[in-house]
Design brief:
Length: about 425
C-alpha cells in the first residue's frame, strides 16, 4: 500500500474520534486561561490538538509516542549509516507506524519523481540582493513555488472538505522533495560563488543534501539527524503554530509553510542557532582570538544579561530540563568531535550558563535548548556561514509542520480564531473577582 493509501486509512479511522469529541463533549473544559497567559503570549494555554508529537516539560519531545533515542534506533536506515532516513521518518510522522524497508523504498521513489525544482525558483533567488538573509531567500523560494500548488487547484476546481488532505499531502510531499535542493542552492549561490552542485535524486534526502552542499560523509548522517531532530515540537511553537494558523484559512501549504519559515527566522526561535555562533565569535574577537576560560565566559554571560540581552540557546517556553535534542547533538559531538575547540567552548557554556541564569532568577528554564549545540556540528564540517543555520532548521521544521497540516485538513480542523479582550475588560474581571 502506498503512503498516501495508508494515510488515507488512518485518517478515515481517526475522524470519528474528533467528530465525537466535538459533537458530544464540546463543552468539557481542558483548562483555564489567566490574565498572565492572555498578556504573556498564551503560554501553556491548551488550545491546539496534534497526535504527531507531544512535548512533556520534564521529559522533552516524543514523536508519535517515541523518544528521540527510540526513533533513531527503530526507524530504517541506509546500509552502514547511523541515522534513519528522513523519508522513513516522514512515513512515521504521518502514520505513526514504523515503516518497513519496502515502505521506505516506495517513499524514496516517490520523492525522486517529485524532486525537480522548477527553474524559475532559482531565478527568483538570483533576483534578490545577494546580501539578503538566506531565510528571506528560502521563504521567497517557497512562496514562488506556490503556482505549483495542487491544493490551490483543487480549491479552484470544486473543493470538498473531506478530500482536502489529499492535495495537502501532495503539496507537502512535493515541497519536502524539493526543499533540500532549494536550500543547498541558496548556500552555494550565496557563499560559494554560485558554484552549484546538481542534485542526485537517486540518493536519499540526507545523502543528496550533503552531496549538493559539497560536504563529504558523515555529513549525510549529520543532515539526517539534524532534519529529524528539528522537525516537530508539538503545535504551539511559533513556526508550527503559524503554519497551522495560515493553513486553517485554507491557504495552501506553500503560503502556510512560507509563513511558518518567517516565524522561525526570529532570534527567540530558530535564529537562536545563528546567534549562539555569532555570540561566541564576538567573544573570541573581544579576547583577541584567545580561547575563552571559564572566567571569561562567566564575565561575558553576565555582560550579555546586564546589557538586556538573552543567552542564546538557553531557556524554553515549555521545557524544564536540558532539551533532549541538545543532548542528542552533544552525544554526537562527544563521539565524533570530542577534541573540537568550539565543542569545548560550548560545553564550557553548558557548565556555567545554567547557574548564572538561576542566579539571575528570570528564566524559568536555565537549561540549553536545541539551538545551543547545533552550530558546533555544522562548523566542524566546514559550514561556517552561520546565518545559513536557520535554513537548515527550516528544512527540518518543514517535515513536522507539513505532516501536521496534512492531518489538520484530514480531520477538518476549523479556521483558527481565538478571542481578544480589551485591557479595561481584564481590569473589570480583576475588580469583579475581588
Ligand atoms: N537569557 C536571558 N534571559 C532569559 C533567557 C535567556 N536564555 N530565557 C528566558 N529569559 C528571560 C526572558 O527574557 C523573560 O524576561 P522578562 O521577564 O524580562 O521578559 C524571563 O526570563 C522569563 O522568560 P521565560 O518564561 O523563562 O521564557 P519565555 O517562554 O518567555 O521565552 C525563550 C522562551 C526561548 C524565547 C527564551 O528562553 C529565550 O529568549 N531564550 C534565548 C533565545 C533562544 O535560545 N531561543 C531558541 C528557543 C528554541 C527554538 O525555538 O528554536
Amino acid at each position: 500500500m502506498s503512503l498516501q493509501d495508508v494515510l488515507g486509512k488512518k485518517i478515515e479511522e481517526h475522524r470519528p474520534r474528533t467528530t465525537k469529541l466535538l459533537k458530544e463533549h464540546a463543552d468539557v473544559k481542558v483548562g483555564e486561561v489567566t490574565i498572565g497567559q492572555a498578556i504573556g503570549g498564551g503560554r501553556s494555554v491548551k488550545m491546539l490538538v496534534t497526535d504527531i508529537s507531544y512535548l512533556d516539560p520534564n521529559e522533552g519531545i516524543r514523536f508519535r509516542g517515541k523518544t528521540i533515542p527510540e526513533v533513531m534506533a527503530e526507524l530504517p536506515k541506509m546500509e552502514g549509516k547511523d541515522y534513519p532516513t528522513v523519508e522513513a521518518f516522514w512515513y512515521f510522522l504521518l502514520t505513526g507506524d514504523v515503516p518497513t524497508d519496502a515502505d521506505v523504498s516506495e517513499v524514496l521513489a516517490d520523492f525522486k519523481k517529485r524532486s525537480e525544482v522548477p527553474s524559475y525558483v532559482f531565478d527568483v533567488i538570483r533576483a534578490l540582493p545577494k546580501d539578503s538573509h538566506p531565510m528571506v531567500m528560502f521563504s521567497s523560494a517557497i512562496m514562488a513555488m506556490q503556482k505549483e500548488s495542487k491544493f490551490a487547484k483543487f480549491y479552484e476546481e470544486g473543493f470538498n472538505k473531506m478530500d482536502a488532505w489529499k492535495s495537502t499531502f501532495e503539496d507537502s510531499t512535493d515541497l519536502l522533495a524539493r526543499l533540500p535542493e532549494v536550500a543547498a542552492f541558496i548556500y552555494r549561490y550565496k557563499y560559494k560563488d554560485g558554484d552549484i552542485i546538481a542534485s542526485n535524486p537517486d540518493l536519499d534526502m540526507g545523502a543528496n543534501f550533503a552531496h549538493m552542499m559539497g560536504i563529504d560523509a558523515p555529513y549525510d548522517d549529520v543532515a539526517r539527524m539534524y532534519f529529524i531532530l528539528h522537525s516537530d515540537h508539538e503545535s504551539g511553537n511559533a513556526s508550527a503554530h503559524t503554519t497551522h494558523l495560515v493553513s486553517s484559512t485554507l491557504s495552501d501549504p506553500y503560503y502556510a509553510l512560507s509563513a511558518g519559515i518567517n516565524a522561525l527566522a526570529g532570534p527567540l526561535h530558530g535564529r537562536a542557532n545563528q546567534e549562539v555562533l555569532s555570540w561566541i565569535q564576538d567573544l573570541y574577537k573581544k579576547l583577541g582570538g584567545k580561547v575563552p576560560t571559564k572566567e571569561d565566559l562567566k564575565t561575558a554571560l553576565w555582560d550579555t544579561l546586564n546589557s538586556g540581552g538573552v543567552i542564546p540557546g538557553y531557556g524554553h517556553a515549555v521545557l524544564r530540563l536540558p532539551d533532549p535534542r541538545y543532548t542528542s547533538q552533544r552525544e554526537y559531538c562527544q563521539k565524533h568531535l570530542p577534541e573540537d575547540e568550539l565543542f569545548k567552548v560550548v560545553s564550557m557554556i553548558f557548565d556555567v550558563a545554567p547557574d548564572i541564569l538561576k542566579e539571575q532568577g528570570k528564566a524559568k528554564n536555565p537549561w540549553p535548548n536545541v539551538d545551543a549545540q547545533s552550530g558546533v556540528i555544522q562548523w566542524y564540517y566546514g559550514l561556517k556561514e552561520y546565518d545559513f543555520y536557520t535554513v537548515l532548521f527550516g528544512v527540518g521544521r518543514a517535515i513536522g509542520v507539513l505532516a501536521n497540516i496534512t492531518w489538520d485538513r484530514g480531520l477538518g480542523y476549523a479556521l483558527e480564531r481565538p478571542k481578544s479582550l480589551t485591557t479595561s475588560m481584564l481590569e473589570d474581571i480583576v475588580k469583579n473577582a475581588k
